[in-house]
UniProtKB/TrEMBL annotation:
Keywords: Hydrolase, Signal. SUPFAM superfamilies: alpha/beta-Hydrolases (SSF53474). One of its GO terms (molecular function) is hydrolase activity. Residues 420-451 are annotated as: Disordered. GO terms for biological process: lipid catabolic process. This is Calmodulin-binding heat-shock protein. Residues 7-71 form the Mono-/di-acylglycerol lipase N-terminal domain. Residues 106-242 form the Fungal lipase-type domain. It comes from Gossypium schwendimanii. Pfam families: Lipase3_N, Lipase_3. It comes from the Eukaryota. Residues 1-21 form the signal peptide.
């Protein structure tokens, strides 16, 4: 009898410990060791949020539900608007916008529409380990949507980029469902930059807002220099590895599903998660907007933390009443705007404080000099120079460290830092030499009849004797002609 009592006590203590850890775990714990993002890094986020919101408006000249301060865009610079009637269910609606003030070409894709059956079909077109691509696994339905979008719009994007003097940045942005499509579009374009006029990797960027888990960990780290994911506090979608199709099939009992996911993931070792190559993750570098902390009432001025995490990459569901509301694009735009204003204000106050300190030191130095002159001293003191505040690590160094960390953890198909960066530099050098040489650059094989992105995806694989698609580990996707 005493043995059963002891076992029962241990079981109750274990359950109590688990319940305490889960109930006290808040979203800010995920990024407590990350560094703060600079205003320059985070400045485009509120702007791209407004562009995604603009996709919902039928008439941008007479908007019905503008955010605070309006959309702040020029309707004449909207190159194309596409609705559900135009996409035929193969992609969420989107718009293409040329921002001539900031020299950007932006393709903005809206999120999931709960009233559209086509969006659910897009999400359900996947199963664990169904789609391999570029040395990892991706969501099959989202990849098909990205390929369809590039088949339709790649010529338009290439033409606009060439007409603007090849100087503009090309930015893909999306929210929720659209974030996965935008991220996989970016991966495709990075691998086949020649199909968009030879645009350099440095001019490509993706902002995935409330991102869906759409690619394996090695790909998420590999493309962290071009893909940026923005997560608001307790958002559930980037944190659950449960397939998207299961989540949205259970949309009406989502709290119960999230609780069961918490219970299951608590007992799965971290190493086992990392060794599963089919497990999908939120893509790229992470930006976490934190506005609430444990045992603090209400919201405080949000701060933005950033890192390229490898292990512990938003692995824990937060049991919070805000887990679903933090997923909304409206709240992301508001908090991102507040965070940017707070960081700019904080930076301004810091510089002002430093200026006051330096003025005081200069006055103090002059006072000492005057005293020394009065005492006929020959010693001359020079005031110290103003030191600039710089980040401890550059973004490039953080990316190298993340790649090395992935290799050290034996992440399946993780790439080496040296070979990846060397390959990119050699390709860009060859492209620059071809563009600056006397002989005209040879046109790609498919340019005469238009790029078929389905064929480019197929070239990354080989078929086994059974007819299944197998990854070509030895293939170099950036050299496909």
């Amino acid at each position: 009898m005493s043995l059963f009592c002891g076992v029962e006590c241990v079981f109750l203590l274990g359950c109590s410990r688990w319940a305490w850890r889960r109930c006290t775990y808040v979203g800010s714990n995920d990024s407590e060791t990350w560094s703060l993002a600079t205003p320059d890094e985070f400045e485009p986020v509120p702007r791209v949020c407004r562009l995604i919101l603009a996709v919902y408006e039928p008439d941008l000249r007479n908007p019905q539900f503008p955010p605070d301060g309006g959309y702040r865009l020029n309707p004449d610079w909207v190159l194309k608007r596409v609705t559900y009637e135009d996409t035929l269910g193969r992609s969420p609606p989107y718009l293409i916008y040329a921002d001539h003030d900031r020299k950007e070409i932006v393709m903005a894709i809206r999120g999931l529409n709960l009233a559209k059956e086509s969006d659910y079909k897009l999400l359900l077109d996947n199963r664990l380990g169904m789609q391999m691509f570029d040395g990892g696994y991706v969501h099959h339905g989202l990849l098909k949507s990205a390929v369809w979008l590039l088949n339709v719009e790649s010529e338009t994007l290439k033409r606009v980029w060439e007409e603007t003097g090849r100087e503009y940045q090309m930015i893909f942005v999306g929210h929720s469902l659209g974030s996965g499509v935008a991220a996989l579009m970016t991966v495709l374009v990075v691998n086949h930059r020649d199909r968009l006029g030879g645009i350099p990797r440095s001019k490509l960027r993706c902002y995935a807002l409330a991102p869906a888990r759409c690619m394996s960990l090695n790909l998420a780290v590999k493309y962290a220099d071009v893909i940026h994911s923005i997560v608001l506090q307790d958002d559930f979608l980037p944190r659950t590895a449960t397939p998207l199709e299961d989540i949205f099939q259970s949309i009406f009992c989502l709290p119960c599903l999230l609780f069961l996911i918490c219970l299951r993931d608590t007992f799965i070792p971290e190493g086992r998660k990392l060794k599963d190559p089919r497990r999908l993750y939120a893509p790229g570098r992470m930006y976490h907007i934190v506005e609430r902390k444990f045992c603090r009432c209400g919201r405080f001025p949000p701060e933005v933390r950033t890192a390229i995490p490898v292990d512990g990459r938003f692995e824990h569901i937060v049991l919070s009443c805000n887990a679903t509301s933090d997923h909304g694009i409206i709240w992301i735009e508001k908090e991102a705007e507040k965070a940017l204003e707070a960081s700019v204000l904080c930076l301004g106050l810091t510089f002002k404080l430093l200026s006051c300190i330096m003025d005081y030191r200069q006055w103090l130095t002059c006072w000492f000099l005057q005293i020394m002159r009065e005492n006929k001293s020959e010693t001359i003191t020079v005031p110290p120079k103003i030191q600039r505040l710089e980040r401890l690590q550059t973004i490039e160094d953080e990316h190298k460290d993340a790649l090395e960390r992935a290799v050290s953890l034996n992440i399946p198909h993780a790439v080496s830092t040296v070979e990846e960066l060397t390959e990119n530099k050699e390709m860009e050098a060859e492209a620059a030499k071809a563009n600056n040489g006397d002989s005209p650059k040879a046109e790609p094989e498919l340019s005469s009849r238009g790029t078929n992105w389905d064929e480019l995806v197929e070239k990354l694989f080989k078929r086994s004797e059974s007819g299944k698609l197998m990854l070509k580990k030895e293939s170099n996707p950036t050299q496909i002609q």
